[in-house]
Write a structure and sequence with these properties.
By secondary structure, the protein is α+β, with helices and mostly antiparallel strands. It has 6 helices and 10 strands; from the N terminus they run αβαααβββββαββββα. Strand 7 and strand 8 form a beta hairpin. Helix 2 runs antiparallel to helix 3. The model has no long low-confidence stretch (mean pLDDT 83).
């Protein structure tokens, strides 16, 4: 097993150069650690509130002695807050596991993949890239490349998949008409996913001239925006923009006529139920980006074969 538990628990960054089955086993262990951390924080949360209620009630019975449970409750809240770092973001390691399970069939057999997975909180100080004031708001901007995945497919094509997240935290303190001071906090963000393929230029002559074809071939799930596309002689890449609250897999909505918005009735056509848009499906986005890139490669190969056939005829 490539996972070094002691090192991982210090940095919360998982790095591996190993076959897919070993990486999946490590991710399973990370998931188990996360579940234990979530259970511990939940227990602390419930215990703190129970002790706090007991302390408040004790004030009316035993007087100042009831302060002891209240102090204990405050301590439990502090311990829980400090353990926030150990409560990992499930969707990150869940996305990597889902993608590896899908890709391992097409990857080179027994070949190792290179993976860097950062599971530390996205608002750590080391990830802060800017801070200042904008109007009446105090702002902090964070940027992190939390996923880097590289591997080689059975046909020799090299894959590089990465994901970057941007987060902005804003706060504003003001005094209302009653003289009370209130602090408002907001945050917003976005995620960028990039999928790149590197090939041998001699196998795909004319690839650099297929920029327009690559744009027309790009297919993304509804709501996902194409941020950038690049095509060169030996590589091509797509970058897509996702909402900050993306999910690993968007479940299919259950049919519920009462919750569906009805499209306007045009002429005699029956009304068509319109399903409200869901959250951005990251695993589906990565899969469709990869298929779009391969469509361009296949088109380049077919053009080369047709040229060879004409030359020999």
């Amino acid at each position: 097993m490539a996972l070094d538990l002691s090192a991982f628990q210090k940095t919360l960054v998982y790095q591996a150069h190993a076959p897919v089955p070993e990486v999946l086993e490590d991710l399973k262990v990370i998931g188990q650690l996360d579940q234990k951390a979530e259970a511990a924080r939940k227990t602390l949360w419930i215990s703190a509130w129970v002790v706090l209620v007991v302390g408040v009630l004790s004030l009316f019975v035993v007087g100042p002695l009831g302060l002891a449970p209240i102090v204990l409750a405050v301590g439990l809240f502090i311990v829980r807050a400090r353990r926030r770092r150990t409560d990992l973001e499930d969707r990150r390691y869940g996305l990597v596991a889902t993608l590896l399970q899908r890709l391992q069939v097409d990857l080179e057999k027994d070949a190792a993949v290179d993976l860097t997975l950062d599971l530390s909180p996205n608002d750590e100080v080391r990830k802060r890239v800017a801070e200042g004031t904008r109007g009446r708001w105090k702002c902090e901007d964070f940027t992190e490349t939390w996923l880097q995945l590289q591997g080689r497919f059975a046909d020799g094509t090299h894959l590089h998949l990465s994901m970057v997240e941007h987060l902005q935290k804003r706060s504003r303190t003001q005094r209302n008409a009653r003289g009370k001071t209130k602090t408002k906090r907001k945050q917003k963000g976005k995620a960028l996913m990039q999928v790149s393929l590197r090939v041998k230029a001699e196998r795909h002559p004319g690839l650099a001239a297929l920029d327009a074809s690559a744009r027309s071939a790009a297919r993304l799930p509804p709501g996902i925006k194409l941020s950038r596309i690049r095509v060169a002689a030996d590589r091509l890449s797509l970058r897509a923009l996702l909402a900050h609250d993306w999910v690993v897999r968007e479940p299919k909505p259950a049919f519920n006529p009462a919750s569906l918005a009805m499209a306007p009735n045009k002429g005699r056509k029956p009304k068509v139920p319109v399903v409200p848009p869901g959250k951005h499906d990251a695993s589906r986005t990565a899969t469709m980006m990869l298929l779009s890139l391969y469509q361009v490669l296949n088109f380049s190969s077919s053009q080369h074969k047709r040229s060879d056939a004409r030359a020999t005829s």
